């Protein structure tokens, strides 16, 4: 990545090796289809960097400021370091923003494809940015550019055993990856298919997914599965969220669709509004819909972490700046100036920056 002089809210990604013709066409399609909505939630190409022969050498994209990888929120220890004021309400708020980001991508006909911990950044205010967008599956009319990479732990069961290269993914496949990501976030870094198996034979996490062995589901014991000891039950997030996960991880069937990204956003927003303060630890919260918890009992997280992990700086109960954040990231500027060391000058909107031939492959 290279800074862009005069535009601290943007960076230039310059490839060490020029993309091939197909990838170059994909990047042109992405830059031509960019819009303010995408630029708020993704490091989406807004302009291209071209060499003297017109070949794509990189692109300009929004810059994520003061952002951490989403996995820093999973465990109380890493959360205390990266997000010292974050409590469980913050996690739910971030989850809703992640779902909104996916919804924005899906509404435009694109697919994230390679869903994983590393392509979601979270700001201290709870805003979210999707990165590595040049690997997304992109559609422009009849032209389709596939995502040729993937992460098995976020890949839908029906795709396991198939090569990623040339694989045409659907929104329903992305919804599986989104549900896994949200499960990691809400259930303290646990994978939904990582559990105790009472059957025979060697089992890997990938095989658990391929065989639809959801370790937290209501029917898990029928398939010889049980969630690990010391983990939060699926129902701990309330019946509405539990039902969403059941539907997301149910065995695929004809006509069955996993929950939409916007359904997750709405459900998590409702969950955030319903959270009540734990009587045992003020930085723990539980859903008001849980009839099994009363004002005299501790929140589910207490049974896992106790009260020893707490934010390094207690969040104020009267004001949360992150509660007002809904994907407000850095809008692209209409005039761009690239670094002088790249040999490019001021660009007008929708223009293409031309790079000189440089040592090292550019």
Question: What can you see in these coordinates?
Answer:
This protein has 362 residues and is an alpha+beta fold. The protein folds into 2 domains: 2-63 and 331-355, no CATH class; 67-324, Transferase(Phosphotransferase) domain 1 (Transferase(Phosphotransferase), domain 1), CATH 1.10.510. It contains 9 helices and 16 strands. It has helices spanning 21-32, 36-41, 76-82, 88-107, 171-186, 205-210, 239-248, 261-274, 302-305; strands at residues 2-3, 10-14, 47-51, 56-62, 67-69, 120-123, 128-130, 138-140, 143-145, 196-197, 225-226, 275-277, 285-287, 336-337, 346-347, 353-355. Strands 1-2-4-3-16 form a 5-stranded mixed sheet, with helices on one face. Helix 4 (88-107) packs antiparallel against helix 5 and helix 4 packs antiparallel against helix 8. The two termini are 14 Å apart. Residues 293-298 and 324-362 have low confidence and may be disordered.
